[in-house]
Write a structure and sequence with these properties.
ten-stranded mixed beta sheet; Rossmann fold; 3 domains; UDP-N-acetylmuramoyl-L-alanine:D-glutamate ligase; about 475 residues; six-stranded mixed beta sheet
Length: about 475
């Protein structure tokens, strides 16, 4: 929604917004754009009367602004519908979808196109990403529609529902000319009943790709295979499988960088270097490379772009280094993403003590549906600290995650774990325990009570830390 606000402003519209509580990095981006965000929601925020209200999918009946919009009949629409009508029409729609990796993969794809555009105007991208891409310093870019050619629009395709009046996935509004499908797993337990329901949503996306289009799909998931099995377009699988169209070979890591050979249909395509740790990031980069190459982007541009890719805000982002303690911010909020994040950090910081600090905040993670998987992911850390479930009162008691049970299971597995009420309690308990050389991975898809600023401040106020 924050990105859409910037895009609409770029078209010349006056844009304002409302939120219960805005937090970085998107609140920083809005402030830099001069777009006002009112907090909290109130009818007065809709004065003067807007010409159009864009209703986000977090808004439900009972919200005071939504009730006013309905009562006085202010025109309204969803984010996804407006994107289609105002930005995708007349452009080539390239959609990145999947349970994991969407934001990073879309950012990589956008940077590949940007690098390629320096020598070929066909690849000048517009894009919308669910995070701030550090190569651009923004989450969006809108370039003019060309009368001579269909210029690309790269968009992160979210499987979450669209609005209170449109419960289908947002990505069904994007009508891709080509797409990436990274992973398919059960997620969003608040809107999907089970894995089959999630797969049905992705199958519907696949069914929108025209016969002339292309689908780049991960080769290591039976769920992905099921979702792409009835595609009408060409399907190119990517990953480590011997028979994959895009195959990763000779994978290796050098500190925080990853290197591998990429083959295309059994023939050498390129040697790729990515300044990011983790097998999952190499897979994301391979997906972006595959889609770009299939759309005509030269291999040389892909190699150059990935070698200079600077990640995304809140994806393995180093927020501070204080007294030799490295504090990492990561958006991971699904057991699979948490596992891959911790694996990547193990590779990037070998031999260092790894702390995982987790806020159960997403609608799925607040529920006990992934309790066992969460333990299996967190066991990769040396120490684990959990916050209490975010807004636990909104989750039925029988469905609610119990952090104490997670901590007990981890301790039984030999990983010391503790639970604290909130960010302030965590900082008070954690800061005195940290030692020079420790790595702290803070995992949340929200603001986590300002812990990203509070923990470094507490460490700076500590004059001496013992060495490990």
């Amino acid at each position: 929604m924050a990105s859409l606000a910037g895009m609409l402003q770029q078209l010349g519209h006056k844009v304002t917004g409302s939120d219960a509580a805005a937090y970085p990095p998107m609140s920083d981006q809005l402030r830099a754009l001069g777009i006002a965000v009112a907090e909290p929601y109130a009818v007065e925020n809709l004065e003067p009367r807007p010409d159009l209200v864009v209703v986000g999918n977090a808004i439900s009946r009972g919200n005071v602004e939504l009730e006013h919009v309905l009562n006085v009949r202010v025109p309204f629409c969803s984010m996804a519908a407006l994107l289609h009508d105002e930005f995708l029409a007349g452009r080539e729609s390239l959609v990145v979808a999947g349970t994991h990796g969407k934001t990073t993969t879309t950012s990589m794809l956008a940077w590949i196109y940007e690098v390629a555009s320096k020598s070929d105007a066909r690849f000048v991208p517009s894009f919308l990403i669910g995070g701030v891409a550090e190569n651009f310093g923004t989450s969006f870019m809108v370039r003019p529609v060309s009368e001579e050619m269909r210029v690309p629009f790269l968009i992160e395709g979210d499987e979450y529902d669209t609005a209170f009046f449109d419960k289908g996935p947002k990505f069904l509004h994007y009508f891709p000319d080509a797409a990436i499908l990274t992973h398919v797993e059960f997620d969003h337990a608040d809107i999907y009943d089970d894995l089959e329901a999630v797969k049905t949503a992705f199958k519907r996306l696949v069914n929108l790709i025209p016969q002339r289009g292309r689908l780049v799909a991960f080769d290591g998931s039976a769920n992905v295979s099921d979702c792409v099995s009835k595609a009408f377009c060409a399907v190119e699988r990517y990953g480590f499988a011997e028979d994959s169209y895009w195959r990763i070979l000779k994978m290796r890591h050098q500190g925080a960088s990853s290197l591998w050979q990429l083959d295309r249909s059994g023939e050498f395509f390129a040697e790729l270097t990515l300044p990011m740790a983790g097998e999952h990031n190499a897979l994301n980069a391979t997906a972006a490379a595959a889609l770009a190459a299939g759309q005509g982007v030269p291999a040389a541009s892909i190699v150059r772009a990935l070698a200079t890719f600077r990640s995304v805000k809140r994806r393995l982002e180093v927020r501070a280094e204080v007294h030799g303690v490295t504090i990492i911010d990561d958006f991971a909020h699904h057991p699979t993403a948490i596992r891959e994040t911790l694996r990547a950090l193990r590779g990037a910081y070998p031999g260092r003590k790894l702390w995982a600090v987790l806020e159960p905040r997403s609608n799925t993670l607040r529920r006990n549906v992934f309790a066992e998987a969460l333990v299996e992911s967190l066991v990769l850390a040396d120490h684990v600290i959990l916050a209490e479930v975010f807004k636990s009162e909104s989750i039925p008691a029988g469905e609610r995650l119990h952090p104490d049970a997670i901590a007990a299971a981890l301790t039984t597995r030999g990983v010391p774990a503790a639970v604290y009420a909130d960010a302030d309690a965590i900082v008070t308990a954690l800061a005195p325990q940290l030692q020079t050389g420790d790595v702290v991975a803070i995992l949340s898809n929200g603001g986590f009570g300002g812990i990203y600023e509070k923990l470094p401040a507490a460490l700076r106020a500590t004059s001496i830390l013992s060495t490990a």
